[in-house]
Design a protein that fits this description.
Distance between the termini of chain A: 29 Å
Order of helices and strands of chain B: EHEEHEEHHHEHEHEEH
Strand order of the largest sheet of chain B: 5-6-7-3-8-9
CATH superfamily of one domain in chain B: P-loop containing nucleotide triphosphate hydrolases
Radius of gyration of chain B: 21 Å
Structural class of chain A: mainly alpha
Distance between the termini of chain B: 25 Å
Number of strands of chain A: 1
Structural class of chain B: alpha/beta
Largest sheet of chain A: none
Number of domains of chain A: 2
Number of helices of chain A: 13
Shape of chain B: globular
Order of helices and strands of chain A: HEHHHHHHHHHHHH
Helix content of chain A: 55-70%
Largest interface: A-B, 48 and 57 residues
Oligomer: heterodimer
Shape of chain A: elongated
């Protein structure tokens, strides 16, 4: 087919497009423009995450009650195994160990589910990606936001448990807010990295449960890292303590549990938490954006 | 292009330009039915590049070039699997091109919102979600909400809009989806078949709505197997076969050739 008419005749398609101000369809916008588009979609991102959350239990008889019951059952199972059978408390009294364990599980689950849904956020929503136009980062962000809302339900359970074991509301509880905010940024960044990887290699979704479980055991969810690794070289404990999952978990434990003081925290813990959030939040976002125009090829 | 011989040239503004466009799908695990675990392992170990590693390529659009102008309504015809829908998605910028380019004026949009809706949510929430997914603002959706519900006719038989979509009959769900999708105005509008959903009164309403959308949109693309609806709405037709552009010209000429070829 030859390019068309008179005054435009002889122009190549690219020249014709330039002459009339046409732009390449599906080209990746600049980073600033991308952020602007994403901000414009904030209502969609929020509505999508809430819709996913509601849809999750809409067929169950107990309905949204499961939002609270599921984390409670989870906590119970871990307490039975690690608290009663294995005895991983290592010198921590029950009144500290139970809230310690439950906080760890809920906070780690927040990261875990964000990563798992991040992996599938593009590859599992190809229909949406191929039908409508929106900055693709909306999807991993929306899924992380869904997990954040899920966590807020868990926090209700958590607060009840913490108070049942003798830690009462105090000013330090307010520290939960910045800690969770930083963790959310970290999770979202990680979810965006996983989303890009998962879009290229859907097999990751099969592999991730194993990686996440390894991370779970290495982060001291059921035991205190310093107490458990007393006899090992110090650098191993340090390595584990400064990993992002352990940092966020410890911050929230420190904020909520009375008997869990700053002696359990590694040094510069807030700076570490902030650094992880910035590195992964910004890095993950840029990494995801770099492949923006390629999502959708299945 | 046969229809470029008149004297309206100076006024014609291109809205979509496709330049030697190629689209390739990559499909995992589609290779020759050798789906067993040992076969997969074997393929990984052998490490030959690309196609043989359990990855098959489907070359859906092969070197298509055309220019569409403002005010045109363009029909796409071709047998099943000839690449019509893929071409539309590429124009919309939803499928990355293997090589070649598509230039567009503004953001072309596909008429369709199905993928954003969730069966477990009420019709009400789906209207909101679908509208947001298409890029409408919350105020716009609120303004048009009643219009969307009335147009779909969902509430003609009781208060169904507050029930989850999974309780709808397939016709009702299709009507609601179309109503949501058609609620937005577009620069370049692309419509992919399946207009003939719902009962007779709804079909008449949707045809009217499509005509309205055509008036508001700069350029309209319509994929359809029905020669009648193409003749009714389009003045230019592209005929695709096996991903190649066989013919591009005025509706009558192309449809005649197509019908002769397919033996209708």
């Amino acid at each position: 087919m030859s390019p068309p008419p008179s005054s435009d005749a002889g122009l190549s398609p690219a020249e014709l497009a330039a002459k009339h101000g046409l732009t390449v369809s599906g080209a990746r916008p600049g980073l600033a423009e991308y952020v602007r588009q994403l901000w414009g979609r904030r209502h969609f991102i929020l509505a999508f995450s809430q819709a996913k959350l509601t849809a999750q239990y809409s067929q169950a008889k107990l309905g949204q009650l499961w939002q609270v019951v599921t984390p409670l059952l989870n906590a119970l199972v871990y307490f039975l195994i690690f608290g009663l059978i294995i005895g991983a408390n290592r010198g921590m009294g029950t009144e500290i160990y139970v809230p310690f364990l439950v906080t760890g599980i809920f906070v780690f689950t927040f990261t875990q589910t964000s990563v798992m849904s991040g992996v599938r956020s593009i590859s599992g929503n190809l229909g949406l990606v191929r039908a409508l136009h929106f900055p693709r980062a909306s999807l991993p962000i929306s899924f992380s936001l869904q997990q954040l809302q899920q966590l807020l339900f868990s926090m209700v359970v958590l607060i009840a448990i913490v108070m049942a074991f003798g830690s009462y509301p105090s000013l330090s509880w307010l520290l939960v807010i910045p800690a969770l905010a930083l963790q959310f940024v970290f999770n979202t960044g990680l979810a965006m990295i996983m989303a890009r990887l998962g879009a290229k290699t859907p097999d990751l979704a099969q592999l991730m449960p194993f990686i996440m479980r390894t991370w779970l055991y290495a982060s001291g969810v059921m035991f205190s890292i310093p107490l458990m690794l007393k006899d090992k070289p110090a650098w191993i404990a340090d390595l584990l303590l400064y990993n992002p999952a352990a940092v966020y978990m410890d911050l929230i434990r420190f904020a909520l549990i009375d008997g869990y003081g700053s002696e359990y925290l590694p040094q510069h813990v807030w700076a570490t938490a902030l650094a992880w959030a910035i590195i992964f939040g910004v890095g993950g976002f840029v990494y995801f954006w770099k492949a923006e125009e390629r999502y959708g090829r299945g | 292009m046969a229809d470029d011989t008149d004297n309206r040239h100076e006024a014609r503004v291109p809205t979509v330009i496709a330049d030697e466009l190629h689209i390739v799908y990559r499909v995992n695990g589609g290779s020759g039915g050798r789906g067993s675990a040992t076969a997969a392992l074997n393929r990984i170990l052998r490490r030959d590049k690309g196609a043989s590693r359990g990855m098959r390529e489907v070359h859906a659009v092969r070197g298509v070039s055309f220019t569409a102008y403002r005010g045109e309504a363009i029909g796409l015809i071709g047998t099943n699997g000839s690449g019509k829908s893929t071409l539309l998605r590429a124009i919309a910028g939803l499928l990355p091109a293997e090589s070649g380019r598509v230039y567009t004026n503004g953001q072309p949009s596909l008429l369709g919102v199905n993928a954003a809706l969730m069966n477990d949510l009420t019709g009400e929430r789906n209207v909101m979600l679908g509208g947001l997914a298409m890029g409408m603002s919350r105020e716009q959706i609120r303004d048009r909400y009643q219009g969307i519900v009335d147009f779909s006719g969902i509430n003609e038989k009781g208060d169904f809009i507050t029930l989850p979509m999974r309780t709808y009959s397939s016709g009702m769900a299709a009507r609601l989806r179309f109503s949501i999708a058609a609620a937005k105005d577009h620069d370049v509008l692309m419509i992919d078949e399946a207009l003939a959903t719902g009962d007779r009164p709804f079909q008449i309403r949707s045809e009217e709505r499509i005509r309205e959308l055509r008036k508001e949109a700069g350029t309209v693309f319509l994929v359809s197997h029905s020669s009648k609806s193409i003749r009714d709405t389009c003045d230019r037709v592209l005929w695709l076969e096996k991903g190649e552009l066989l013919m591009d010209g005025p509706t009558d000429e192309v449809i005649k050739a197509y019908e002769k070829e397919t033996g209708k």
